């Protein structure tokens, strides 16, 4: 059966179509094998084509043979086992190859790496391979290099087949160059040629790139310049390795070292070379390749770790990995899957077991059977579902992807399942949803308008506050341009502000007016800032109608206050506790004929009349004990040493931050005091008049009363003469009363008149 | 005990009524009459000695020297132990009397006209000070 693959009629026909078997040696193919050997650092490289009884070497770098029988063929295993790449690191320990003449015999092949030459129709024609006497390992880059070269070989075959090669014979050399350039640039390998005699390094583009040069740079360097790129710590080793080559101690120069490129970056390179020509024992020309392996050096460690841990990862992950065949039998599963099953049904499925159990709920069995059937039908899909683990009392969320599993021939083998634990995503999504809901609640509860506006000024979102403030529902506004709702007179200002916001300025305290749905004007206060990432403006707007009203009232009350202070008849002053003037109202100019400025800094008591000083001082300082006190009228000095009478109310506003002093309201009461003084004087005179009059009038009345008492009293033995005398007294007293009354009337009127004219 | 009665009054009708009243009440003693404070104080400066007792009836409103002026002089020479002054006034005005009442010499105020009840009070006052 295996033999059949080699002898497959269609494959052999495909091979024959290239007429390549037993064709002449061609340098084009030799270049490829030379390059393959250089890339892989092996002495031997072959292009081997396998028919039903032998292998023919179209190119055989480092080996004199042109063909062998299939009995001694490594390459046939690529075809037999349907492989893309075959690497045999120790053929003498591999029972397939250990008896080969090339392994056992003089050739002593210790390493083989071959890449299948597979044409576009999928037929494997042979291989591009490298061989070495000693065992070795190839890195990924080298294998990829081989693969690339193998593709080039197939392309050459295709070209040959379509006879393009013969038609373009003239451009052969040019094509060869392009081809090689393509190969080299595809593999990323730098190629250098060192003229040892003249100390010159000829470099290709890839090589220059490693040094940090641009494509236009010159392609030849002095060797000393080249050495300058080598890391100082590595230079000694490089020199030593080269020396060994030049002294024939080693044929191949192979070293990894560091290059510091023109930008100062340090990169690891893998440098391979070989002396090509000698002048006696002196090396003349050396040829080599150089590769940037920085990534690989960095990756190598990780790769080893990864490889070592691969199994551990598969088995340690919480994610579930398993595959089942077309009969729902388990092919393979990781520990997480086994654990989940075990926790659910008490035992685990072994490979080959049907992955359903009576211990599962029938619905669960049916559900999974349904999924598997879909995958086995060729469908690729993912299901988000809950996994319940009764043992751990835990529910996890998983995103399970189902993929049909095919073998190389496209035959359905079964399906693979990969279930990723997305519990944290689901939970955080739930948190996100509840945060969003909460945000929405806050937005809905906000009395202020909260909205987002895009670059063109369209409302993207807005909360419900707009209904209360502007009369529009959110749906009336979203998708409309905000400027349409702004008061006509404020549009220009608003657009300027919006421009500033889009420039990245954060705006707070911007005021404009919006037009309510009912056409009333709503003054608004805005805060907004531009989110460059989201490309939206976030805005918060407050209805400041009430504040505006309050502002107007405040302005009015300020005006009123001003007019009271400036135009009133009272003098208002603020004093500190030493009674020095801190403030004097402008009314001082009118009331005291002195400007407020002249009083500032002077002491109020300097203006108080000396006779009133003590009393005023006593009354003034009561203010430190009571909130308000009145000072009785006192004399206050104004211009020209004149005094006016002042009546004052003192109010303690020391604790009032806006005043911080003693407020003194004073009024000129000179007129009133003068009237009072005049009245007092008048009263004194009236009293005097009254006294005099009462005295003058009382005297004769008292006499009359005494005389009458005497007459009535019979105890007095009065004689005739005495009686006459008494009668005369009575008459005199009566006359006197008459005179006195007349006098009183006359003098009172007269004296009062005098007072009036005073 | 005996005492001298000094009447300082410019109104002759009052003087007449006072003499009649004193006699009717039984207040006895030599009565010396003066029509103003000056003649009275000049007399007293001569006559006053501690062995005599003096009962003075003093009017306030008088020409030449009024009752207040008289008291200023009399307070200098007289001793409250042997002097009683009854101030006569025709008005009940308190202003007239407050400062005079402060003097230890002044026994009482008597508002004119003097009726017999007042005379009896005056008699009692004299008797309690100077005896029967």
UniProtKB/TrEMBL annotation, chain A:
Domain annotation PAS: ranges: 180-249, 435-505, 557-627
KW Phosphoprotein (keyword) present: yes
Signal peptide start-end: none
Catalytic activity of the protein: ATP + protein L-histidine = ADP + protein N-phospho-L-histidine
One Pfam family linked to the record: PAS_4
Keywords: Kinase, Phosphoprotein, Transferase
Recorded superkingdom: Bacteria
EC number of this enzyme: 2.7.13.3
Xref: PANTHER family: PAC DOMAIN-CONTAINING PROTEIN (PTHR43304:SF1), PHYTOCHROME-LIKE PROTEIN CPH1 (PTHR43304)
Name this protein carries in UniProt: histidine kinase
Origin species: Maribacter sedimenticola
Organism ancestry: Bacteria, Pseudomonadati, Bacteroidota, Flavobacteriia, Flavobacteriales
TrEMBL record, chain B:
Keyword set includes Translocase: no
Residue ranges constituting the Response regulatory domain according to the UniProt record: 4-127
Gene3D superfamilies xref list: 3.40.50.2300
Stored Pfam families: Response_reg
Keywords: Phosphoprotein
UniProt superkingdom: Bacteria
Modification 4-aspartylphosphate occurs at: 59
InterPro entries, per database record: CheY-like_superfamily, Sig_transdc_resp-reg_receiver, TCS_response_regulator
Keyword Membrane attributed: no
The protein's name in its UniProt record: CheY chemotaxis protein or a CheY-like REC (Receiver) domain
Organism: Maribacter sedimenticola
Origin organism lineage: Bacteria, Pseudomonadati, Bacteroidota, Flavobacteriia, Flavobacteriales
